[in-house]
């Protein structure tokens, strides 16, 4: 008689639930790894999100995430106020860090049938004595709302061997504040306003101006080309570039990397600081949060350099 361990059933439920949510909520492709479990349970492919007619087939992008799925209530015992810590040994961390694809960790909670996720990288891995831990936020519930954020590492995979460098966090912050300070200074001067009179709306326009500057440096590609590369609608991309709509952080990253990719295809060299994803994320946060805008106003007033 075949004996089926309860843990096996829970593990299978977790993989099945992940497959269901990825395909129905994200509209992406889910490919379970049928070989023995050595650290990766599935691969997820990002699918083009452009506005297709109802019922029309959508376009795969070839941008992939490797996924490790852990299931069971025991995964949710080491909690904090905002989520859960997942503990693992050094061999798992080494395998994930050396994987050819970006890796995401997913935790399946059987009672609620919810799945929560986190990217596994140098920023999320924390040493814990002889082992390691990764924090999975309760806000990172696997649903359609996380499409942009979850897909960021996959969208960073570029064609033709292009690698987007990632400077240190400190240099990225300094560069971002310097660039945005210059942009807001020029904007308010053109409007006959002082820095103190700059509004959150002005910061968003300044951020859009930075996006347009990169767009021009990339050879001003057709917006429908960007739509194909990012999966975002032409109208929305146009609104982002014009400053009529403020994009999400995930969309900013996807747009920047699509523009860098366009430049690469045309043989246009883009300065390293314009390919710094952290700097763009910092500029987005400042333009989206009035409390942080005081810092940039002070830097604009002092004319601080990024060095």
UniProtKB/TrEMBL annotation:
InterPro entries according to UniProt: DUF4365 (IPR025375)
Pfam families in the cross-refs: DUF4365
Chain ranges of the DUF4365 domain: 12-148
Protein name, per record: DUF4365 domain-containing protein
Lineage: Bacteria, Bacillati, Actinomycetota, Actinomycetes, Kitasatosporales
């Amino acid at each position: 008689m075949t004996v089926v361990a309860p843990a096996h059933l829970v593990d299978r439920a977790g993989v099945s639930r992940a497959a269901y949510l990825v395909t129905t909520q994200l509209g992406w492709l889910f490919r379970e790894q049928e070989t023995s479990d050595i650290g990766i349970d599935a691969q997820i492919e990002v699918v083009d999100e452009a506005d297709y007619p109802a019922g029309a087939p959508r376009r795969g992008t070839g941008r992939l995430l490797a996924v490790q799925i852990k299931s069971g209530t025991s995964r949710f015992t080491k909690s904090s106020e905002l989520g859960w810590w997942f503990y693992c040994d050094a061999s798992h961390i080494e395998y994930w860090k050396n994987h050819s694809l970006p890796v995401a960790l997913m935790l399946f909670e059987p009672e609620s049938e919810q799945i929560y996720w986190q990217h596994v990288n140098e920023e999320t891995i924390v040493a814990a004595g002889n082992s390691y831990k990764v924090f999975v936020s309760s806000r990172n519930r696997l649903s359609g709302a996380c499409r942009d954020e979850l897909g960021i590492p996959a969208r960073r995979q570029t064609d033709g061997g292009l690698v987007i460098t990632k400077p240190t966090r400190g240099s990225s912050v300094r560069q971002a504040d310097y660039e945005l300070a210059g942009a807001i200074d020029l904007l308010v001067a053109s409007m006959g306003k002082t820095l103190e009179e700059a509004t959150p709306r002005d910061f968003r326009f300044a951020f859009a101006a930075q996006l347009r500057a990169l767009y021009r440096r990339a050879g001003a590609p057709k917006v429908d080309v960007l739509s194909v590369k990012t999966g975002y609608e032409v109208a929305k991309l146009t609104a982002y570039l014009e400053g009529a709509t403020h994009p999400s952080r995930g969309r900013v990253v996807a747009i920047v990397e699509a523009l860098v990719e366009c430049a690469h295809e045309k043989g246009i060299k883009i300065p390293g600081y314009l390919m710094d994803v952290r700097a763009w994320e910092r500029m987005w946060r400042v333009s989206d949060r009035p409390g942080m805008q005081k810092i940039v106003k002070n830097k604009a007033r002092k004319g601080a350099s990024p060095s």
